[in-house]
Amino acid sequence: MGWVWLSIFINLCLAVFVPWADDDPFVGLEAPQDQKTILPPLVPPNKLDDSNRSLKKNGQIPDYIIDNCPLVHLYSEERYWPSDIAEYVTHFDIKDAQGNNVTDPLETLKLSSLQLNYYYKLFNGTYNNISSRDTFLTSRDDFDKDPKWLLGSRPEYGTGHIKNGPAVLMVVDKGNGWVDAFWFYFYPFNLGPFIMGYGPWGNHVGDWEHSLVRFYRGEPRYIWMSAHGGGSAYRFEAVEKVKKLRRRNGKLTPEIVHRPLIFSASGTHANYASVGQHAHDVPFFFMPLSDFTDRGPMWDPSMNYYAYVFDGEKIIPSSDREESIGVNWLHFRGHWGDKQLPWGDSRQRWCPVQWRYIDGPTGPLDKNLPRMSLCPRFVWWNFWKGCPARRLIKKGEGLDAEKNDLIGDNCGILLYKVKPRWLRSILRILTWRGVLCFVMDYFTG
Fold first, then answer.
1. pTM of the predicted model, to two decimals?
2. What are the tens digits of pLDDT across the range 382-422?
3. Same domain for 223 and 250?
4. Which of 207, 300, 338, 376 makes an SS bond possible with 368, Cβ 3.0 to 4.6 Å?
5. Domain tally for the chain?
6. What's the mean per-residue pLDDT of the chain?
7. Distance separating alpha carbons of residues 178 and 198, to the nearest angstrom
8. SS3 310
9. 157 and 8 in one domain?
């Protein structure tokens, strides 16, 4: 029996303590040799000039961006589907933090009513000049009763088209051949998570989510998907793809493209790269607070979207449709939903970590579009500002989780090759998806 234990010990050392001595599970998924050359740096939009621009200054959207638009699997039991921001705002007034009307409540709000600053009359007859950051879209209906406009629209079966739910595409020139394509997904309501059966907590009217596809000379290299205050970055070749016919000028062609697939979580609409249960906005796996994704109705944002190009100097509408609604609404920095309900409101509840209803979100230009990193921001403990792009999909947990050759181990290479399985199971129990797993997963991808 001694040789058995010796074999186990050696195997453990090679596979766990000296992971680089084991055969690398990521071999074969790395970038081709021509991608391993040193690529030029990204250029902040405010430092672009004619010598380093990646795009022409005409507002035209390159075809490769549409060819690589992510497809979104919405949750099969979703209640709040995507909607059109132009129709959405008609159900609101703009108010300041004190509840004063910034816009005329007798007029129907339009996207053109949204702007950077406001000059308006107060109850006492004086006038006030404030930044839109201090304003809220305030619903005219009781959102707690689910008015019809709050429910959004489901995608058509087969096509994935949502007639009343255009996405918003923001293309940002990052210079030296780099281009970022931000796809924004708008939902009229965010239904927060349940904690051990109680909730939902963290609900808010209006919900902006987005994904980023980063290109170099027309080739997609990376993809980032938002989830609450953070998100996940991947090498483009790592995420699951779906074969689709290429579209040109709204018409199908016989050419096939492989488009990336992301999964939108139930209620919260956080985006993930796999199916199953996902820890919600916490660094380690925590089952009582989770998001859930599945292969529900597929949404194809490329079939209906508002598109703009940011060339480092100005925002350029890409067609007459965008010209008609203008660009002022993009500069609105206020909240796209009601202010957090006061504690005395009968609709409000509180638990030790969250309120039932919180402030609505801010819009696309508040998501750090000029960023050089794939991540828009960093939590306090990420003092080195790391944002590694994963080489394998981070798998979901639970009964709905899927396992295949594209799915990586959430403990990275730390436990990937540990054999026999019973030993691997014991180590997983000991690490409990904790600090060790998290650190290894973060640095190995």
1. 0.85
2. 777 878 888 888 878 777 778 655 555 555 545 656 777 77
3. yes
4. 376
5. 2
6. 85
7. 45
8. strand
9. no
